[in-house]
Amino acid sequence: FxxxxxxSEPTTWTADxxxxxxxxxxxxxxxxxxxxxxxxxxxxxxxxxxxxxIRLIHEAFGPYPDGHNYLGLIAQERGNMEExxxxxxxxxxxxxxxxxxxxxxxAFKDDVETRPYQRGVMNLASALNQxxxxxEALRMLDRLDRQCGDAFTADSYRADxxxxxxxxxxxxxxxxxxxxxxPSQSLPS
Length: 189
Prior knowledge:
Blueprint: H1 2-5, H2 21-26, H3 32-43, H4 47-61, H5 65-77, H6 81-97, H7 115-130, H8 134-148, H9 151-164, H10 168-176
Helix pairs in contact: 3-4, 4-5, 5-6, 5-7, 6-7, 7-8, 7-9, 8-9, 9-10
């Protein structure tokens, strides 16, 4: 049935593969092995190769929120913070568009569809903090707390911002709240 619904005419992308229909059946989602490849290349510091894979995925499957997130992380590693911020903004925008219609806050962490949005918000807040745009970073953390129900992570990032802005009591309050859960929170960066 699905084969009958698919466009089964060979194209320039499928003419060399008699089994091109297999990818059509799989749909328009990014293959898991491609995501794992990107992650592996990023972890090994092979940023140029990871970028090439991400750009190929963007061409083949359309806008890919996690791809923009990785491009932001790569830009951040290279010290290009303005580019990183733009990629993280795109991650948030695309991640929000792909949101399931009705997701309870308590289900956010378990729902795979919400993860690109959450990652984008966290990484955008971190990048904004690094370039000194504290107010916008705090607005992003409010979204993380309010929309995603992730007060723990939001407070961890708020502690970093409080340190950067010289609000020592606020930094202490935010960081000490979770020290018993995660001892590393007593050492905000």
